[in-house]
Write a structure and sequence with these properties.
By secondary structure, the chain is mainly alpha-helical. The protein has a single domain, classed as Up-down Bundle (Ferritin), CATH 1.20.1260.10. It is 61% helix and 0% strand. The protein is built from 4 helices and no strands. Helix 2 runs antiparallel to helix 4. The termini are far apart.
Length: 163
Amino acid sequence: MNALTEIEINALNEALAGEYLAFATYNQVVADLGEVQPFSDIREAEIQRVDTLCALFVRYGLPVPDNQPERAMHYASLQEACEAGVTAETTLGNMYQRLLDMSLRPDILTMFRDFQEASHQRHLTAFRCCAQRPALSGAGRGRGYHIGGGWDRRHENLRRDGG
């Protein structure tokens, strides 16, 4: 397989860092507010995106960068968290648009297009709807799960049921 260019490697690293951050944000919301929608489902989508990106790193013989989780924000309400979700998905969508404008391999371009579409068409729409809902009293305070000290590349330790 042909070696990736420095631009392609940087694009993959940027995409993975963005997905790690999105996961950390949504995971923190679930930890703070419980298994609330749309965060529960979109958090799982972020895990799938990370898995897909990690597979590309492996396919091209690149070391998979460890997650360096930034401290995720805490939100006092679901509405506040949803507004942050709108910002996060807008940022991800814009990042993918910028990365798509680079000359990249077809498999990378396809993945970036798919991720951008999911951010703009599904995730952003869900967060906008959530942000526009009237505030609900008693949003759950269930147990979410944390990333902890590192990112398990296979993510088995992230798929706990919280029980």
